[in-house]
Amino acid sequence: MSGQFQPGLENVIASETDISFLDVDHEEIVLRGYDLxxxxxxxxxxxxxxxxxxxxxxxxxxRSTLEHNLKxxxxxxxxxxxxxxxxxxxxxMMDALRTGISSLSGYEEELDDxxxxxxxxxxxxxxxxxxxxxxxxxxxxxxxxxVEPRNDLTYSGNFLYMITGQLPTEIEAKVFDxxxxxxxxxxxxxxxxxxxxxxxxxxxxIGALTGSVASLKGTLHGGAxxxxxxxxxxxxxxxxxxxxxLSKLLRKERIMGFGHRVYMxxxxxxxxxxxxxxxxxxxxxxxxxxxxMCVIGEEVMKREKGLYPNLDYYAxxxxxxxxxxxxxxxxxxxAARTVGVCAHVMEQHENNRLFRPRVQYNGPRGLQI
Length: 369
Fold this sequence. Notes:
Blueprint: E1 20-23, E2 28-31, E3 34-35, H1 36-42, H2 45-54, H3 60-72, H4 78-85, H5 93-103, H6 116-141, H7 155-164, H8 170-183, H9 190-199, H10 205-217, H11 224-235, H12 238-250, H13 269-284, H14 288-305, H15 311-321, H16 329-350
């Protein structure tokens, strides 16, 4: 058998794609030819949806039509809401999200249509409904009043409103929209690869997204933003950050929010953008100390371990200041990434080959009964 074993498939090319590419040498994340960071500074999340699903940035009329189509699909079936309300109170929020998404399959009339047009329509429906599931699954489990979507708000503004129950300010809406953009697509992380593997069997797009949620729940993929915020709250003040991190390093504990399988010893461009967004957001809420704490932590980790922050490190305090519960940090990540996953599933279905790798066998041979 030809081929060389690569643990974790590191640096193994698994697919050809026109969607995105991490150009580490030039510190650029490419989305269909555009620099993701430049897009996050000048475009909206709606533009990213159009870019990833329609393969081009929208005109003003196309953006308006897209927003209209999304809002038309906001509603959740009552039985799906009932399922969320009947989940045990100890349910992990990613499990609630996975269950909610999976339950949509019974209401999808085009479920078994793998055509590009049908997959596009299903992607729009998922993008409309996943934020509702994120927000109201949390509210149901916490015994809070469910919130209806508001058509008078932007797509991202409505998402944040449904989570917090408060109308977002201009800076809150802008920063949250930017966060959705930088989380939207990142080439071939485990959750996207899982979705493509599932889609390669000709499984439907809802099933593939459900598998993606299961992958992102794993602590080696998702959850880092939650762990970062818990550490910052553990530190409590600027003076406590460095001693806390040094003590954790001494105990050989992993400091979440630093390092990345692809970027390795280079900065994550998305983290740089979220750091820039965090400073004015923190100032607007008289929480400059939180920004300073993050900077101190960054400096300590660079000095002690030569590691740079990844997106989760600075997204965590951003989400905290936006009023998003820590338990929802990873579900929000998945909601933002839904468009990227859908784009990959569409691409997989259009030019499909079943994933079927081999193994390097290290077990015994020739055993006798």
